[in-house]
Description:
Strand order of the largest sheet: 1-3-6-7-2-8
CATH architecture of the largest domain: 3-Layer(aba) Sandwich
Number of strands: 8
Number of domains: 3
Shape: elongated
CATH superfamily of the largest domain: P-loop containing nucleotide triphosphate hydrolases
Strand content: 5-15%
Number of helices: 15
Largest sheet: 6 strands, mixed
Structural class: alpha/beta
Amino acid sequence: MDDLFDIVEDETLSLDDSNNNDIDKNKKEETKEEKIDSKPKKSMLEKYGENLTTKVYVTNPAIAREDEIEKTILTILTPEKSAILVGKAGIGKTAIVEGIAYKIQKDEVPNAIKGYDIIKVNTSSLLGKYETEDGTEELRINILLKEVEKAKNVILFIDEIHTLVIESRNSGIDFVNAMKPALSRGDVKVIGATTLDEYNQYLIRDKAFLRRFEKIDVQEPDAKTTVKILMGSYPRIEKQTGVKLAYSQFVIEKLMTFIVDMTSEYKRVYELGSRYPDNALSLLSKAFSYAKFDNSPFVTFKHFYKAIMNCQSVYSNVVKEESEKFKKEFKEFLEKENVDLNDY
């Protein structure tokens, strides 16, 4: 009889163990499902990229850059070739890429790239590994390239593309060699941007990598072109700041011409002052910032004068000379607006 009880007890314990195992197994499966579900649903392109083609552009971001835009598009259309924009800092290389995105928005590009997305990615975001939904780990750069190949209608924009070489040395992840096969096949199209110094220092040594790219030289715009860029760009600054520039087009053009002249090459702080159009745009934006600081709905001559007096991209003696020149050239407007220049 005792033996019978022992058998029943053993069977009961066995059933309990079996049930406990099933419960543990179910919990593990649930935990695994929760773990998978908790993983980010965004792709690498969505998570780490900025879509320039869906960006809102108040005005054309690449005024007077039609030649560079055409060369870049022609390169992208060439089998097994990508483009690299090379030029000094602050001259508008990124604006050229945004100009292509703007043209895609407006359907003003060849049929072959209509509907394309231009995705800007930073090299730093490609460092490390990424855990996929099946639990395996893979290098971010490899996942990104696979996504671009699969999408077939994506152009990658890598600003400061020379950092691919730098990070390949520092991080142990060979970005350059990871990209070469896809670039060679033409499965991935890239627009890179870098300065001439960094191009010569980092990129020119890797002939195999550069063979996949067509170099497009980007020159600094001249003064006349920079005035045109400022005239086309101030509506964007108005939109960004909520402050209006309410003078006539004639007066506005005089102001823009003054800014461009003040920030010309030999007046800039050597190697610190940026170049056209960036330095002129910065000074213009600063005037709008002063107006916003004053809670003014309009940017006035007072705000332009304050921006000039606090300009750090040109030499201090230039600031002094240009401020006196500003007082004389716009004396009528300063008096009309009752601007007391002794306050600044």
